[in-house]
């Protein structure tokens, strides 16, 4: 017998080998077609209405909805629940956040949380190849896509590399564009590490999401075209709104 294949679905569509499907998962499977009917931004019926329709308890419906929210298929809006749009597929490359979001027809934006100078701690000094105590900028911004808060970005860079950052840089614009066009610094390469984490209460508040929502965390150390360390970036993205893509090839 041929096995149905859907690249967007989990293996065997989530059905365990013993064939017994949890009640909440059966309800979830019935809700999914409803999302396609409603379309992006459509308001889902209430938990009570769904419980009556599918003849299950409200807690069963609530568990099904929780999973759909975590998967990014639904989002909370006030006291209701609406159908979410597709996730942003950000490339793992030297391209900036701005470029990646624009390519998907969305409007990128940022909201400055803080821009401060600090003496560089020992570990960061080793990564940026500067002396401990050297002044570094720490810039923290909320990332936006069509005015929706989708992540937080923290950037560390030596003050000597961008001494006029506080005066010349528009925090709502691309930092990569500023370095290239205003400062004349070109990116050469970078090392990245991607992991899943839970947001701290502060981060969840800034992004406007639940602390229980899985987040995608990227650590990046960038270098200029001469191989000199340039910036250390910690980017936290909402797991329900982002996915990441990369191209793999034969390394030979």
UniProtKB/TrEMBL annotation:
Molecular function in Gene Ontology: DNA binding; DNA-binding transcription factor activity
Pfam families reported in the protein's UniProt record: GntR, UTRA
Record has Transcription as a keyword: yes
InterPro entries: Bact_HTH_transcr_reg (IPR050679), Chorismate_lyase_/UTRA_dom_sf (IPR028978), Tscrpt_reg_HTH_GntR (IPR000524), UTRA (IPR011663), WH-like_DNA-bd_sf (IPR036388), WH_DNA-bd_sf (IPR036390)
Lineage: superkingdom: Bacteria
A biological process from GO: negative regulation of DNA-templated transcription
Keywords: DNA-binding, Transcription, Transcription regulation
Membrane-spanning ranges: none
CDD domains xrefs: WHTH_GntR
The HTH gntR-type domain, residue ranges: 21-86
Protein name in the entry: GntR family transcriptional regulator
Protein source organism: Streptomyces daliensis
């Amino acid at each position: 017998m041929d096995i149905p294949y859907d690249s967007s679905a989990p293996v065997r569509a989530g059905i365990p080998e013993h064939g017994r499907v949890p009640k909440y998962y059966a309800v979830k499977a019935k809700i999914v077609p409803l999302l396609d009917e409603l379309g992006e931004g459509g308001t889902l019926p209430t938990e009570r209405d769904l419980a009556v329709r599918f003849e299950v308890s409200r807690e069963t419906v609530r568990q099904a909805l929780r999973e759909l929210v975590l998967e990014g298929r639904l989002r909370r809006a006030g006291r209701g629940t609406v159908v979410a749009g597709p996730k942003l597929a950000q490339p793992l490359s030297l391209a900036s956040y701005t470029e990646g979001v624009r390519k998907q027809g969305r409007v990128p934006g940022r909201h400055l949380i803080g821009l401060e100078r600090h003496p560089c701690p020992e570990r960061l000094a080793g990564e940026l190849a500067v002396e401990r105590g050297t002044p570094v900028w720490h810039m923290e911004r909320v990332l936006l896509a069509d005015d929706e808060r989708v992540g937080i970005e923290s950037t560390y860079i030596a003050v000597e590399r961008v001494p006029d950052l506080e005066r010349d840089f528009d925090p709502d614009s691309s930092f990569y564009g500023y370095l290239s066009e205003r400062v004349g610094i070109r990116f050469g390469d970078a090392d990245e590490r991607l992991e899943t984490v839970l947001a701290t209460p502060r981060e969840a508040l800034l992004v406007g999401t639940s602390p229980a929502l899985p987040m995608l965390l990227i650590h990046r150390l960038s270098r200029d075209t001469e191989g000199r360390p340039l910036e250390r970036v910690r980017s936290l993205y909402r797991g329900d709104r982002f996915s990441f893509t990369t191209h793999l090839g034969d390394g030979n």
